[in-house]
Amino acid sequence: MPVTETDIALADPATLAARLIEHMVEHEVVFETRGVSTVADLGRGTGTLTVLARALNVRVEAEDAGDLEMIRAVFAQHIVEFAEEPLEIRWTGLGESPDAFANFREIRLISAEDLTPHLRRLRFSGPDLARFASDEDLHVRLYFPPAGLAEPEWPRPGPDGRTLWPADERKPTPRYYTIRRIDLAAGTLDIDFVLHADAGPGSAFAETAQPGARLGMVGPLGRTVRSASWHLLAGCETALPAIARILEGMAPDARGEVFLEVAGPEEEIPLAKPAGVALRWLHRDGALAGSQERLLDAITAASWPEGAEPFIWIGCEFQIAKALRRHFEKERGLPKERQLIVGYWSVDDD
Description:
alpha+beta, TATA-Binding Protein, 3 domains
């Protein structure tokens, strides 16, 4: 397993470590104490913080170089942001900074297909896609170049571990998406895009891009459901691709319930699912996404069979996700390891 580490000289390493841990816990990162060290579980690797007399030791271990670079970048960026002094960060174990992240791929648009009036599937081709064919990690980070840029430029790892970006006028915009399907033999992958009236970079690309258009992609990222005797899956249309993929991967005897909020019946799509998983569509009927409590009410009213060991997976608007985390933790007493509730977007961004 690849390893890289650094000792960062600091006037008060304990305070910085505490701020970093607090921030990452707010973003659902799980830590545990091992002796004098604190270890973050980041799915595809770990980050270990050890407070020394006048320095902070950071050790990153991961499954491969791509994951190692990604986790290292997270720690380096946050440490620089939280430090109130100039820093020198030198990592051992990875050698010189390469021209691209090991988990980066440039992908090209092949075709587009409308699944509903507001859900469009784009098919891309790309090299060496095997690492993205993961049933455990559903998402990727896509980089959308500025419109009209003839030759896109991509981020790359810097010598201190942070991400180096192109100049502002050439800087791509990152967004997170779900790989819906991947065909390793053909070298293609499908990603579903929700089309918005106030189009962001992803929606705008999906509406206007022509075959041959290029995007950057890194990953895989994110998590799927954990093993459980009963599952609750829920979300708005932004989570629909992930929920569809999760359902397809479930065992035939799986049990649970699914709530999906969409604009109306025209936005429903056929979903393959086990017979023991109930599916309920919730329609906004003209209301704005995130403006109602219909999804929140449906989820909080749901109950699982007595004696079941549930797992909750939800992707929705940020404030709704926050309320649901509070509900399951405080009112239901559900341990954090039995839930993954993520804010995919925020009404405040509109």
